[in-house]
Amino acid sequence: MKTNAKSKLEENILSHLTPEGDLLDLEEKNVTPEHLRLLCQAGESLNSVRQLYLSNNGLSDAEIEILSKSRCLPNLEKLFLNHNKIGNAGAKMLAESKLARNITCLMLEANHIGPEGAKAFALSPNLKNLETLFLDSNPIEAEGAEVLAKSANLPALTALHLDNTEIGDQGVKAIAATQTLNGLNKLYLCSNKISDEGAIALAQSPNLKNLNCLSIWRNEIRDGGGKAIAESPHLLKLERLYMSFNLIDKSVRKLIRSSDLASRLKTLVMD
After folding, report:
1. CATH code of the domain occupying 3-193
2. If we measure between CA atoms, which residue out of 17, 47, 41 comes closest to residue 29?
3. Does pTM surpass 0.70?
């Protein structure tokens, strides 16, 4: 590598490495395509990096194309790309990248990923090690939830974050009916206009029996859905339940607080 390029690499990339070399923090650093090309040229300098933060940089699909071709992050486990401008094309490039093969945590909150992007993740053979997926505040809609729920390519997934993703009752029912995501123990579904129909589907699903955390606050769940959650014969491992800002009557909230479910919970948040 030429001296000028090496000094740029040191200034713009390597200076943000932790002393241990396992975390590279480029969050809100005005990362440009040139910076990403430098990153891709870093060679063995980044072999120890396990966490890469690229949040809040305005990255688009063009920048993700550069990143997805990188061969200098062979041990990357956690990739944070939230609050950027990544669309379906970028999601597909990430899903098809060798970079994804060791990823256990993929943070993509607040981008522009729709159903096709969700489909790319669901169909990818490279995400076998993925344990935590953040797609909050992306318009994946019910179609995106459905394809994720049917995916046989996410065997390690234990935490699925789908707050504010426009999935509605249809998407929630697809997740409740999953035959492949049986290892889920954390499910986040806030702000999705879920009604009693979706809540009842969650409560009646034997496929979600391993959940220890369920977040369904800021939806449109009424008394029937609240009662169904409280009386669920399947949510026996649940430890944390977040269901504030719904439409559940005060008397039913009182009933929920005195239920067997509530007595097992470590945390119950309900207004």
Report:
1. 3.80.10.10
2. 17
3. yes
Angle between the N-to-C axes of helices 61-68 and 33-40, in degrees from 0 to 180, rounded to the nearest 10: 10
Collapse the DSSP code of 142 into the 3-class scheme (helix H, G, I; strand E, B; otherwise coil) and give the result.
Answer: helix
Q: What is the pLDDT of residues 186-242, one digit of tens each?
A: 999 999 999 999 999 999 999 999 999 999 999 999 999 999 999 999 999 999 999
248 in Cβ contact with 257 (< 8 Å): no
Taking the CA atoms of residue 194, residue 195, residue 197 and residue 201 in that order, the dihedral angle to the nearest 10 degrees is: 40
**C-alpha closest to that of 134 among 156, 118, 149:** 118
Rounded CA-CA distance 9/3 in Å is 10
Strand order in the sheet with 51-53: 23-25, 51-53, 78-80, 105-107, 132-134, 159-161, 186-188, 213-215, 240-242, 267-269
The contacts of residue 47 (CB under 8 Å, 6+ apart) are: 72, 74, 75
